[in-house]
Amino acid sequence: MNMRSLRNRLAAPTLMALGLVTAPVLAAAPVKQAPPAAAAPKALKALVRTEFKLDNGLEVSLLPYGDMPKVVVQLAVDTGNVHEKAHEIWLADLVGKLLVEGTTTRSAEQLAQVAAGLGGQLNVGTSLDQTFVGIEVLSEFAPEAVALIADVSQRPAFPPAEVERVKTNLLRDVAIARSQPQALADELLAKSLYGEGHAYGRTYPSEEMLKGYTREAVSAFYDANVGAARGRLYVVGRFEAAPVEKAIREAFSGWKAGPARVQNVPKQQVAKAVQFLDRPGAVQSTVRVAVKALPPASPDYVRQEVLNTLLGGYFSSRVTANIREKKGYSYSPYSRVASHVEDAYWTQNADVTTAVTGESLKEILKEVDTLRKTPPPVEELRDVQNYLAGNFLMTNASRFGLLGKLRFVDLHGLPDSYLETYVQTVMSVTPEQLQQMAAKMLKQDAMSIVVVGDLKAVKPQLKVLPAPLR
User: Fold this and answer.
1) pLDDT of residue 407
2) In the prediction, which pLDDT does 82 show?
3) Single pTM value for the model
4) Which one, out of 181, 293, 296, 461, has a CA that is 20 to 30 A from the CA of 265?
């Protein structure tokens, strides 16, 4: 047997013992260095947008942004579900979706072809307070995009066949929503907070109501609620200002002014007790804990965002750490501030195992009560502030993200300085301020609680809750 074969048969320790190989010299492990400290979050650069107003009331904002040769043109009209009457639920949604289904000058197919030729696709949306239609195109086609949005918004044809087709799609959407406990909980919460006498309290139409909408009803809602006086046109991205402004004036100056903006601010109600929707045999309960919050126009609104994030607004929040990580009651709890014009509410949402529904609510209220009594540690607050500041800057790193922020400040009557100082405002919040805000806002006797689940299994568990909430 030669030396190579012998080495192949013997283990390395044996070879070293025989002196046939030498032990490798191991280099010393490098000393671990601490990562560099994170830099202080940067503020958003000052927004230098050009603004003007047409004689018919249309407000225009032009904001150069970025280096990529693309631009977003979007028209936002302050008309949404809040303008619906009790027998018109989702009529605003139907009108919004039909805007891109043909105009008096082009069919839906022709609109799509024109949009594609510009390098984009028309998109529409309807919210409680606004309807918007927009497109992102190559910069060189910005004037043509303006003309296309003008055609869609000013001359909708509402073809009868498309009215029926879109209604069918909406009927399917309602059916799907009503099969989901989360949607049912949101509907019950809205009714609990606002009542069915206000549009915010009416979430889904009945099948009969939706089927009854005619082309005439669609056209009448459009005429009564859509016009230049409620509109804001945004152009964000790379574009030549002079040709774009010329295109805007040519395309929109002849649009009817239409109705003035109106506000329909609700008076929130307090449930005083748990609102139930029974789902016999359900293995999970969907819960909502809600309370009136500060609207965006409040000087403490950003501070409220910090409060929400710390409690349940991101993955490392207190409620998530408690009922998901520690207890294992829920997979993805979250909280949010739902904002409307001069109105808002805070809600903690969770889907929890039926057997621990009462304990989950108890733990949520315990986290709220703890913050009401004790300021959070500086380190915990700093993590929340860094998260919010970073997320804000990331959102504004895109044309659509920045445009969405512009729409937010304009809808709520805020100055651009709100955006420019947002990071600074977030980072200046103190633990004591959060505790004081929680003590003032998150009062248990002012909360509305909704549970969608097995009533027979859940109701006995509510003995763990404070007496006013059982």
Assistant:
1) 96
2) 96
3) 0.88
4) 181
